[in-house]
Design brief:
Elements (H helix, E strand, L loop, with lengths): L1 E6 L5 H15 L5 E6 L10 E5 L7 H18 L4 E4 L12 E5 L16 H20 L2 E4 L2 H11 L6 E3 L20 E4 L9 H13 L6 E4 L7 H12 L4 E3 L5 H8 L3 E4 L8 H8 L4 E4 L2 H7 L5 E4 L4 H14 L2
Parallel strand pairs: 1-2, 1-4, 2-3, 4-5, 5-6, 6-7, 8-9, 8-11, 9-10, 11-12, 12-13
Helix pairs in contact: 5-10
Length: about 325
């Protein structure tokens, strides 16, 4: 059996981690052959693994479209692939062989539906890419997903049998740290997330404002953004400074430092769009209290965790109440 593994999109981050995990698994296979079709990410060839790199695919969307529809199907035929494993959400067009598709984009299946005037790019992902993904899923022989909630939503939305969808949790390394203990001087609330609007920093900021209005200022909130990433984040940073809120814009942090912060803080996670919500699992691994948006991904990840509490992602007052109760009770 010869499998063509298609992933010209991966170059770094989570996508590269997933690609690397499949490569490591297939290296151990003594019987089958694999052909990895990639753009810039480099892998070592073995007697049973061949790697083809096409860096020009990254030049523009038109280059990518040409490769997907013209070049890639030709590679399936030229190298005699018996099946295709697509690691980039959509099956390879016109492949002519059975396909397995790895779905890792949660936006089209999330319970939150964007409006075009609210956030145009996520809206197009849900409306356009979402339709393409659902059609692709219905054609695929097998679908791989990262979480149970995505499996349930794909089965429901695409109306396919459950046995065609397999949950394959991505490889995640949990770092060792000291046992969880709240900072002795003052409560610490931690939110490790990037700057997209759906990460919902505004609800966190409004919760801090709610606490300040009630005289609660002896705490610190740490965000892993600089406050300069985009117009929305710059506005939040100005608002935090003008209102004297104890929010520190720390910027991206090394992974070891993230775990050290988990071990002495309450994780606040108001994001309403996630596939897994990895910080939830990381904070759970050190025993930290968690305040999470009441969304499918969070219930899936920490719904059975005794130290997790949930709030409506747009209810800043409820988050403020939970922060006040949780942060000060744990001291």
């Amino acid at each position: 059996m010869r499998t063509l593994v298609y992933d010209v999109a991966a170059d770094s981050g989570g996508a590269a981690t997933v690609l690397q995990s499949f490569y490591e698994e297939f290296r151990k296979d003594p019987e089958n052959e694999y052909l990895f079709v990639l753009s810039v990410y480099e892998l070592e060839e073995t007697p049973r693994i061949r790697v083809l790199n096409f860096p020009w695919v990254k030049k523009s969307p038109l280059h990518r479209l040409y490769f997907d529809y013209v070049m890639a199907p030709g590679l399936v035929e030229r190298y005699g692939a018996d099946r295709v494993l697509s690691l980039q959400n959509i099956a390879l067009p016109r492949a002519g062989v059975p396909q397995t598709v790895y779905e890792h984009n949660a936006l089209p299946f999330s319970e939150y539906r964007f409006r075009p005037w609210e956030a145009f790019r996520p809206w197009t992902t849900q409306q356009i890419l979402g339709r393409m993904m659902r059609r692709s899923i219905r054609r695929a022989e097998k679908v791989l997903v990262q979480t149970n909630w995505m499996k349930a939503e794909i089965v429901r939305q695409c109306r396919i049998p459950e046995d065609r969808v397999e949950v394959r949790f991505p490889p995640v390394e949990m770092l060792k740290t000291k046992p969880w203990e709240m900072d002795a001087e003052k409560p610490l609330f931690f939110y490790p997330a990037g700057a997209p609007a759906y990460k919902n920093h505004r609800t966190f900021l409004k919760a801090c404002e709610w606490l300040r209005e009630r005289g609660c200022v002896s705490y610190e909130a740490v965000w892993t953004v600089t406050g300069e990433e985009n117009d929305g984040m710059r506005a939040l940073k100005r608002e935090a400074q003008e209102k004297g809120l104890p929010i520190r814009f720390a910027g991206p942090l090394p992974r070891q430092e993230l775990f050290e912060l988990y071990a002495r803080s309450v994780l606040v996670f108001p994001s309403y769009i996630e596939t897994i919500g990895l910080p939830l699992l990381e904070a759970r691994s050190v025993g930290a209290p968690i305040l999470a948006a009441d969304c499918l991904y969070a219930r899936d990840g920490v719904g059975d965790y005794a130290r997790a509490q949930f709030f409506d992602p747009f209810d800043a007052e409820r988050l403020g109440e939970l922060m006040g109760a949780t942060g000060y009770e744990q001291r």
